[in-house]
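User: Can you predict the 3D structure of 5,10-methylenetetrahydrofolate reductase? Sequence below.
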Amino acid sequence: MALLTFRKRNAPAPMTPGLDSLLTGYSIEVMPRTAEKVEDFRALLPEGTRVYIAHIDGTPIEDMVATARRLARDGFEVMPHFPARIIPDAATLQDWIARYQGEAGVHQGLVLAGGVAEPRGAFHSSMQLLETGLFDKAGFDRLHVAGHPEGNRDIDPDGGEETVMQAARWKQDFSERTDARMALVTQFAFEAAPVLDWAARLRANGVTLPVHVGLAGPAKLQTLIKFAVACGVGPSLRVLQKRAMDVTKLVLPYEPTDVARELAARRAADPDFPVEQVHLFPLGGIAKAAEWAEAQGGAALRPARRAV
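Assistant: Sure. Here are the predicted structure tokens for 5,10-methylenetetrahydrofolate reductase:
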């Protein structure tokens, strides 16, 4: 398999006030099989970038830990996924935590239900994983959890958000009664309005956890539509559908610039706005996502210690 090498470029001045601030310290997601294709992440990503490692069903834990070890060795903050529905029991969870910590120095994780329909064992939700106390016992100091701006039909089959909002309130309470530093990380969306409306509803429900908004990195339209359908993206999918009907835009790659600008503008106007930063899903490739963030001003070095 050919390895890819990329040259780092200097970032041009951002065009939208507040966009560089929103993108500074952005995080990005990889899988072991995509990480193998990148020769040197340090040539692509800002120093200290938080890199999530997606744990897809069927991926051996050995591959996950090896990827975590490599990224940690190169100076990145590593945040592996802990999908409840593919973890058979507490002993397995404890083993994974110990291996990540012992072999890669990991002290943070994204705790989520996972994308499989039926649990493989004792767990079906992120809350059950958190309630084991195993992350706290191991000294994990940062635990991110999933947020759902456009709902989640696996959780609320009727298309509402009663159950997901209850879960958000539970996670808020968990953050207040433990020492865990937490944030809500969302699925990618293709327009800002659903995210802005959801953020307002979070506030109304007493949820003040910081929000890290998922954005799909630059990619071909056909690729994005395939991933969006598979991942259950909600009403914002209409943005892609409308674009697909315009022949002049059909062949052009999608970029999340408009969504990011709107979020940045709202954040700049409201210092208490809960959206703190961006999490990139590099559906069109890690290099393209990193280059887009860099071009928008997101290549600044991560601060030594962030507030969240």
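The CA atoms of residues 220 and 251 lie 8 Å apart. Strands lie at 27-30, 50-53, 77-83, 108-112, 142-147, 181-188, 211-216, 275-281.
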